[in-house]
Description:
This protein is α+β, with helices and mostly antiparallel strands. The protein has one domain. It has one helix at 2-21, and strands at 32-36, 49-53, 56-61, 67-69, 72-73, 76-80, 89-93, 96-103, 106-112. The strands form 2 sheets. Strands 1-9-8-7-4-5 form a 6-stranded antiparallel β-sheet, with no helix packed on it. A 3-stranded antiparallel β-sheet has the order 2-3-6, with no helix packed on it.
Amino acid sequence: xxxxxxxxxxxxxxxxxxxxxxxxxxxxxxxxxxxxxxxxxxxxxxxxxxxxxxxxxxxxxxxxxxxxxxxxxxxxxxxxxxxxxxxxxxxxxxxxxxxxxxxxxxxxxxxxxxxxxxxx
Length: 120
């Protein structure tokens, strides 16, 4: 039973990581980073209100904020649960990826811009 759980978790991680790599966003080069606290706050340049309770991230947003999680527009309060030390959970805002990570007691949002391919 333990092997099946580990394989499932690895498959989910691998799928998220592969999607991130092929999303057109730079995983290693965020354009902004925000640490989240327990008090609800609006973050510079990001839609909605964000806060953390017990390691879970709460996001309050309106449909007009254009903030998506798992392909669905957030309308109200969305609760996500990033796994400590695992690859971040990805939300989308327009053409940016918002990566929500947890490392120990610290929860961070990394904002990734799309890769711009220049042709000359």
